[in-house]
Amino acid sequence: MTHNSNSPHATASVAVLEQLLEIGRKVLAEEDIDLILATAMDGAIQLSGAERGLIILFDQDGRTRFHTARNLAREDLEQPGNEISRSIIRKVREHKKPLFLKNAREDPEFKASKSVRGLKVLSVICLPLLLDKKLIGAVYLDNRSFRGVFKPATYDFALRFAEFISLAAMHALRQQHLRDNVDALQHDLRQRYQFGEIIGTHPAMTEILRLIAQVADTEATILIQGESGTGKELIARALHQNSSRADRPFVAINCGALQENLLESELFGHVKGAFTGATENKVGWFERAHGGTIFLDEVGEMSPALQLKLLRILQTGEFSPVGSTLTRHSNVRVLAATNRNLQQLVASGQFRGDVYYRLNVIAIDVPPLRERASDIVLLAQHFLRHYGKKYGKTGLRLTAKARAGLMKYDFPGNVRELENMMERAVILCSADEIGADVLPAGMTALPAPETATHTTFREAKKQVVESFEKSYLIDQLSETGGNISKAARRSGMDVKNFFQKLKRYGIDAKIFNVKKS
């Protein structure tokens, strides 16, 4: 008897196989465990015709670590009416063997169940997720409306599909393990070292904390680079607090806030009569900070003449007060910060190369807030707690719309701007929830591209497109409560493409998993 490849059954089998391969491809392509389970769950429902489904992953101790469901939450299984579902999953876990019931009500094993009369489950497929014969999870599918909805062919395909899920889940768990290690590293660093008000869980911030811990208790001169408002002084203070100089003075000087002659006097001191108004001797900050740390903020604003004096103290520890020929010595550690590109200033002759290389022994680059968007809400909540306590308004929280508004904003003033914004919100709010109405008007508007004199058409277009994409993604997540699959469907986008864009813009879907306002 020959097989007719054009028969309806063969055509249906090919279609299901194509579905299986496509879903398997999507599952295997993912790295985020939550997205993998969501994609796999949708695929399992689509493939089998199931009404409800649940995928569970277990940790090494057999406890549930991750789960996702459609029309059936894991907690629902604890209800008395779901005794059969519970026992089916338990049996699959114990024996590591799949279970297929065309009609659970007629199955001899479950007829003795106390809840058989009220049993609403008809068709059931429950599969163990195995990797190297080790149980890592289970897939449960059922249908309460039609008996025999699961055919043998469906079961066979589901078995193959479970293999896809097992491989993809293990790959994702390994990735999650790496992320957990990063989180553990940051927790350990924060436990062991004093990082003050440095807030953030973005990988770039974890790397900064690691570097601070590594170089703090050395004598190395450190150059902290970043835009205004990114918290460069906080990093300098953390370096000082975690050094052997912690019990000695920490002095911060803004080199861009004083005129050259005043800055020189502040740094190195002066003698009586050195200039008009110098009516008495003055001790400079390099001398006062002896044994401690001096932080030169906005060092790129320092004049070439002052740079030469700075070079001398960096090389020898020696200096002379203004108007004096005497040489003094100070044992200080120098930390410097700038929001300008010192390399470009060196190339243009505006900053001495020898000073730059003396300052840049160790460089710490602080990313702008827009490049670590995942920290925005975390920082906002920190400031809400701080200013809520200050103004007697505790328990404040952001609404979903407020979170979305913050995430869409580029924060040209960085963390300092966000802090000011949250203080304003605390003052203006009249309820426990901070809504978008107390955020600055127009804050979420798309930023205009830089003028044509500073950027090309292509670069300006790229900025507008990226700003739109980020805003659009955040809106969709806000509307769906952080459900990536649902947001992708609403957008008409492939889930994988949607997720990749979230990663590109540093958007954490979990922060939208709150009650919509």
Characterize the structure shown:
The protein is of the alpha/beta class and 517 residues long. The protein folds into three domains: 8-178, GAF domain (Beta-Lactamase); 203-367, Rossmann fold (3-Layer(aba) Sandwich); 375-512, Helicase, Ruva Protein, domain 3 (Orthogonal Bundle), CATH 1.10.8. Helices cover 46% and strands 13% of the residues. It contains 18 helices and 14 strands. It has helices at 8-29, 33-48, 83-95, 108-111, 152-192, 203-215, 232-241, 260-268, 285-288, 304-316, 342-347, 353-359, 376-390, 400-408, 414-428, 457-479, 484-491, 495-505; strands at 52-58, 64-70, 99-101, 123-131, 134-143, 222-225, 250-254, 293-297, 318-319, 328-329, 333-338, 362-365, 397-398, 433-434. α1 packs antiparallel against α2. The longest helix is centred in the first third of the chain and has 41 residues, at 152-192. It is elongated and about 105 Å long. The termini are far apart. Mean pLDDT is 80; it is low at 444-453.
So how many helices? Answer: 18
Shape category:
elongated
Give the integer mean of the pLDDT values.
80
Any low-confidence stretches, pLDDT <50, length ≥5? Answer: 444-453
CATH architecture of the largest domain: 2-Layer Sandwich
Radius of gyration: 31 Å
Count the domains. 3
- Class of the largest domain in CATH? Alpha Beta
The main β sheet shows up as: 5 strands, antiparallel
In terms of quaternary structure, the protein is: single chain
Amino- and carboxy-terminal Cα gap? 65 Å
Adjacency order of strands in the biggest sheet: 2-1-5-4-3
* Residues in helix, %: 40-55%
Give the total of beta strands: 14
Strand content: 5-15%
CATH superfamily of the largest domain: GAF domain
Derived structural class: alpha/beta
CATH overall fold name of the largest domain: Beta-Lactamase
